[in-house]
Amino acid sequence: MDLSHIKEAKRSLALFGVSERIDIINKNIWVDCPQCSRVERVVKNMLNARGMSPAPCLLVCGEGGAGKTSIINRISSRHDAVDGIVAFASLAENPDDLRFRELLLTALGVPLKAQGWSGKIPNGLEKYLQLRNILAVIIDEFHDALLAQVAEQRRNLSLLKKLSEPPYHLSIMGFGTTSAVNALNQDPQLERRFEVLKLLPWVEGDEFRSFLASIEENLPLRKASRLYSQETVKYLLTNTNGTMDQVLKAIRFGAIHAIKSGEEKITMESMQKGAVRRWDY
Ligand SMILES: Nc1ncnc2c1ncn2[C@@H]1O[C@H](COP(=O)(O)OP(=O)(O)O)[C@@H](O)[C@H]1O
Ligand SMILES: [Mg+2]
Fold first, then answer.
1. pLDDT (tens digit, 9 = 90+) per residue, 76-100?
2. In angstroms, what is the span from residue 179 Cα to ligand 2's centroid?
3. CATH architecture of 34-198
């Protein structure tokens, strides 16, 4: 069996049975792409610029499914350099319905009880941050904090501004939709501290073809699908609008149907079947 379309370390997976291979496909695989690596690089460089005042801040924006949360997860799990020095908060995961300030302080490790009077930065926070060596906070679904009602929004912006200034010097790194950029415009001084990186949808080109080739190298299919071929690229772009999440779903469901049907390679038909039947395999 010619398995040269799969990378060497993963070739043996193609010999597994149907359900084992479907499990593998359903697990997330990570494939580096220029936009993702750029965000990781900028985060790393900002962390290395410790001591800068005000601290450099970052806004990564992209629509739903562009890969924002995945990049955050990757940063938190893969970069040893980030260990301890970056706090993580998500406005999507807020079961106790905390206000932005409380959520942020909790993410920094300040217990609710010690957060003090609402609206103020707790006394001693600068010492605490220094002691724990926290340089940055990464906030997912950042736009939620900025699209609140006017009074709340003003409070949140002012909090972020103070935290990025002396004595806190905290790099604020928000990930959210493009609406966050407009909200930041309200405060030009704060806006200038932010480097804005956009996660754009895939378009036809070498970067996309190379991304598709890397995905294919990781899939346990016994035949070559040639996902980077002109025909497949065109199919994917017209049927997914180039959104990362949708591209991966089209490929994933297509791969599963290709295994179930015995065809063993992703084709237009298996992707079409995958799009209609999805989990019904
Ligand atoms: N570089 C990547 N390689 C492989 N899969 C990725 C990559 N980036 C994103 N994904 C996948 O895309 C999907 C959507 O990503 P997600 O991070 O939830 O988007 P967002 O937070 O912007 O809505 C996820 O299933 C994730 O596994
Ligand atoms: Mg997300």
1. 987 666 778 999 999 988 777 788 9
2. 14
3. 3-Layer(aba) Sandwich (3.40)
How many A from CA of 238 to the centre of ligand 1?
A: 19
Q: What tens digit of pLDDT does each residue of 237-250 get?
A: 999 999 999 999 99
Give me the residue spans of the domains in the chain. 8-29+202-277, 34-198
Ligand nearest to the CA of 65: 1
Give the Å distance between the CA of 246 and the centre of ligand 1: 9
- Find out whether the beta carbon of 184 lies less than 6 Å from any atom of ligand 1: no
Per-residue 3-state assignment (H helix, E strand, C coil) for the chain: CCCCCCCHHHHHHHHCCHHHHHHHHHCCCCCCCHHHHHHHHHHHHHHHCCCCCCCCEEEEECCCCCCHHHHHHHHHHHCHHHCCCEEEEECCCCCCCCCHHHHHHHHHCCCHHHCCCCCCCCCCHHHHHHHHCCCEEEEECCHHHHCCCHHHHHHHHHHHHHHHCCCCCCEEEEEECCHHHHHHCCCHHHHHHEEEEECCCCCCCHHHHHHHHHHHHHCCCCCCCCCCCHHHHHHHHHHHCCCHHHHHHHHHHHHHHHHHHCCCCCCHHHHHHHHHHCCCC
Q: Give nearest CA residue, ligand 1 atom 9.
A: 67
Q: What pLDDT does residue 174 have?
A: 97
Q: What is the pLDDT at residue 222?
A: 98
The whole-model pTM stands at 0.92
Any atom of ligand 1 within 6 Å of the Cβ of 212: no
Question: In percent, how much of the chain has pLDDT > 90?
Answer: 77
